[in-house]
Structures are given as C-alpha cells and as structure tokens.
Amino acid sequence: MAKAPRGKKYSSTNEPQVAAEKHMKSVFKFNTDLGQHILKNPLIAQGIVDKAGIKPSDIVLEVGPGTGNLTVRILEQARKVVAVEMDPRMGAELTKRVHGTPGEKKLEILLGDFMKTELPYFDICISNTPYQISSPLVFKLINQPRPPRVSILMFQREFALRLLARPGDSLYCRLSANVQMWANVTHIMKVGKNNFRPPPQVESSVVRIEIKNPRPQVDFNEWDGLLRIVFVRKNRTIAAGFKSSSVLEILEKNYKTWLATVDDGAMMDDSTSKKHGDYLDVVKQKI
C-alpha cells in the first residue's frame, strides 16, 4: 500500500499558506527593517499554536501576523484573534486570506505600531516577534493591567537565551533578572533560519512566558531602577555599583525626597546630619 505524502494532514491549511506566500512574493518585497521574516514551516507554526493551550473561549493577541500562517491556525481554536500589524500591505493581505472563511468574523486587525497601540483585553499572546521590539514587547506584556495567561513568543536565539539564563550563567543580565521577577520562562523549541522567508541572519527560539500569580508585591519601576544599578557593568560588585558618582547623585536625591515625606520627628532626628555634613555623606554611611 502506498504511503500518504508527509504533511498530508495539514493540507487544508498548507495550500492557502503556499498560495498566500507566492502571491505576497510576487506583489511586494518583504521589509526586513520591520522584522518581516515570515514563518513558512507549517509544522513549526502548528507546534507554536498547540503549545499555547488555546481554549474555545480565549481571545488571542498576535503581534506581527504577516501573511497569517499562524493566524489561520489560531482562528481554528480561539474565540477571537486581535492581530496588531505595522505594515498596511500585510494587513490587507491577511484580510484577503481569511475572507469568506469561518475565521473572518473572528479576526480583528489593528494597524499601527504595537508599542503605541492601546491593547484590548486578551487571554494569550502569540507572536513571531519582530526582533527589534523583543525587549519592549516583553515588558509591555508583563505590565498589562491584566497580563496574558501565557505568551508563546519567537525571538532571536541569543535574546531567548538571555531570558532563560539563571544566576551564574554567562548570559545572566538585567533582562534575565527583570523578566524572571514577574514571570516563569521556559524554552519550547529551536527554529533554524531556513524556516523563514526571507531567512534572517540569526537562529531563533520559541519561549513560553507565564506571568506569576499572585504577582510579586514589588514596584516595577523601583525594581528596574535597582537592576540598572546592579548590572551597570559586568563582573562588578553590587557595592561598587552603588558607589559610582552617578548612582550616588540619584541616591542623594531620593534620600532628600524621603526626608520630605517622613514625620516631623524623623526630620528632627536627621537635623544634625544636615548641619554638620551634607546629604551625600549620610547616603554613603547608609550604603
């Protein structure tokens, strides 16, 4: 008995995908400055969607849908897809692709810069991320008033490894510490550059980000400011970081602000320091 061709089970989705890619290639050139590297491997696209664990009631945010190779698969499982696309040409092509399909009424396309777009409520984020917005995208997701239950994101391999790095690893950095304060990050799969059209210059990885629940009771801006001091230079001690002139100026300013907010008794207790030494000396003593 003859064997069925490999990939046959995806034919219903693959044929429109191939047609869409051929049409796109003939119509215009992909803008790699906008991170337009279209994921063309249907098995990887399906694997990304499956790892999201989409429920029929879920609203899914997709950043950078491109020709819709991920979008059409998400539409099969989600209640609604909100796709944020920077390039109007891509938005038009995606609209054409889903026209007349069951997913047409479930798709909302928001044209514009993701970082400047006010996002509606969503349960899950899936993105073949334009690499130039990798870090801003992660922190925008983390800082949503109601962050997504899970995010499945494609990143440049090195960026993904920094997200995953643990204390003591050579790649552990401010990004690692910052994201891991708010979320659990796991690696899903490596993706070679030949799985994209046009191929990027670097390899990629897909990661899963799940926001911690309950959320740590830490002010994001204060934590981020602390990490900027701690990671100002590689292989430098924390104490040395706090003793640099620029950091001391910030600490002195913050100390003055704190003194202005405490009660009168605390202000009186600190009056001696104000008379016999400046604020900076007090700050140095407290480090």
Written overview of the protein:
- S-adenosyl-L-methionine binds at residues 37, 39, 64, 85, 113, 128.
- Residues 44-213 form the Ribosomal RNA adenine methylase transferase N-terminal domain.
- Keywords: Methyltransferase, RNA-binding, rRNA processing, S-adenosyl-L-methionine, Transferase.
- This protein is of the alpha/beta class.
- The protein folds into two domains: 8-216, Rossmann fold, CATH 3.40.50.150; 232-286, no CATH class.
- Helix content is 43%, strand content 17%.
- The protein is built from 13 helices and nine strands.
- The protein has helices at 11-27, 42-51, 71-75, 88-98, 134-142, 157-164, 174-182, 220-230, 238-242, 245-261, 264-269, 271-276, 279-286, and strands at residues 38-39, 59-63, 80-85, 107-111, 124-128, 150-156, 183-191, 196-197, 204-211.
- A seven-stranded mixed beta sheet has the order 4-3-2-5-6-9-7, sandwiched between helices. Strands 1-8 form a two-stranded antiparallel sheet.
- The radius of gyration is 24 Å and the shape is elongated.
- The chain starts with 10 loop residues before the first helix and ends with a helix.
- Mean pLDDT is 84; it is low at 1-12.
What is this structure's SSE topology?
Blueprint: H1 11-27, E1 38-39, H2 42-51, E2 59-63, H3 71-75, E3 80-85, H4 88-98, E4 107-111, E5 124-128, H5 134-142, E6 150-156, H6 157-164, H7 174-182, E7 183-191, E8 196-197, E9 204-211, H8 220-230, H9 238-242, H10 245-261, H11 264-269, H12 271-276, H13 279-286
Parallel strand pairs: 2-3, 2-5, 3-4, 5-6
Antiparallel strand pairs: 1-8, 6-9, 7-9
